C-alpha cells in the first residue's frame, strides 16, 4: 500500500518510512545536481546562508529539459546519485530529510542518513516525461548560469517514488537482490 507524503518532510515521517515502500510525494521539492551541490557546500563552508530552507527539504537530483510552451518543465528524470555523495552528508546534517535519484549511495551517505533520519527515494530512470506530469510549477531559486542544473523549487503532486534506503540504513538494492536469490536462486532461465 502506497503512502502519501508532503514535502518538506518531518523527522517523524522520514523515520517511519521503510525500504521498499511506495510513496507519492506532493509539496515543494528542490532540484540540484553536482555543480549546485558543490556551490551549496561552499556556502556552508563560508558560513553563509543557503538559498532555500534546508530543514526537512527534499532534493531531487535532476536537470530537467526545457519546458514546452504551456508546460512548467520538460522531461524530469532522475540522474545518478553517486555524483552527489561527496556533498550529501553536509546537507543531511543541516536538516535535509529526503533525496531523490537513481543508483547506489556511498557508505558515508548511508551513515549520515542513519544519523539524521533521512531517506533516499528512487525515481524511475527513463521515465522523465511521465515524471514531469507530476510537476505543477517550477520556479528558479538560484544559479541560473548552470542552465538545466540550476536550483529550482518544484511544486509536485503525487510524484511516484520508492524508498530505496531508509533511515535505518536498510538498502533495497541489497535486500531486493537477496530476496530474489532466495526465491529464484541462480536460475539462468530467469
Gist?
By secondary structure, the chain is α/β, with parallel strands linked by helices. The chain is built from 6 helices and 7 strands, in the order βαβαβαβαβαββα.
What is the makeup of the main sheet?
A: 5 strands, mixed, barrel
**Uncertain segments:** none
CATH topology: fumarase
Could you give me the name of the CATH homologous superfamily?
Fe-S hydro-lyase, tartrate dehydratase beta-type, catalytic domain
Q: Averaged pLDDT, please?
A: 94
Helix share, percent? 25-40%
Major beta sheet, strand line-up: 2-3-4-5-7
Strand content: 25-35%
The second-level CATH architecture is Alpha-Beta Barrel
* Continuous helix count: 6
Order of helices and strands: EHEHEHEHEHEEH
Query: C-alpha Rg, in Å?
Result: 16 Å
Q: How many separate domains make up the residues?
A: 1
| Total E-strand runs | 7
CATH class type: Alpha Beta
Q: How far apart lie the N and C ends?
A: 27 Å
Structural class: alpha/beta
Shape: globular
